[in-house]
Amino acid sequence: MSSVLITGASRGLGLEFARQYASAGWTVHAGVRNLHQRSAITELQHERITCHELDVANHDQILSVAAELAKEPIDLLINNAGFWLGINEHYGRCDEAQWMEEFQVHLFGTMAHV
């Protein structure tokens, strides 16, 4: 049986990837930023989907999930986690904290999963 780890699985593309892979018979490990926050993935309750608290900007959570899954081969990693500053934001007007969060999630978070 094949397995996939999907980051950013609480909504949007990540949620749909989880649904599709589970429907195709894959074991799905869905990374969500907050397990206690209601989301479509936590309410889905599909037998092939296991949710893991996984904020890709949190190195301790990355290590924790890696330890949980250490004995289970992961055939596919879908690094889907990310965020968008919003339609009213412009990169030229971002402060340093916004830039750091952007790099933490989109660059360092992605590299930590590899």
Rg over alpha carbons: 15 Å
Average of pLDDT = 85
Strand content: 15-25%
Give the CATH superfamily: NAD(P)-binding Rossmann-like Domain
The biggest beta sheet is recorded as: 4 strands, parallel
The best one-word shape is: globular
Poorly predicted regions are none
Helix residue percentage: 25-40%
- The CATH architecture category equals 3-Layer(aba) Sandwich
Strand order of the largest sheet: 3-2-1-4
Say what the CATH topology is: Rossmann fold
How far apart are the termini? Answer: 22 Å
Q: How many DSSP H or I helices?
A: 4
Return the structural class: alpha/beta
* CATH level 1 class label: Alpha Beta
Question: Number of domains in the coordinates?
Answer: 1
The run of helices and strands is EHEHEHEH
Topology, please?
Blueprint: E1 3-7, H1 12-23, E2 27-32, H2 40-44, E3 49-53, H3 59-68, E4 76-79, H4 96-113
Parallel strand pairs: 1-2, 1-4, 2-3
Commentary on this structure:
The chain has one domain (3-113): Rossmann fold (3-Layer(aba) Sandwich). Helix content is 39%, strand content 18%. The protein has 4 helices and 4 strands, in the order βαβαβαβα. The protein has helices at 12-23, 40-44, 59-68, 96-113, and strands at residues 3-7, 27-32, 49-53, 76-79. It has a 4-stranded parallel sheet with strand order 3-2-1-4, with helices on one face. The chain is globular, with a radius of gyration of 15 Å. 20% of the residues are buried. The model has no long low-confidence stretch (mean pLDDT 85).
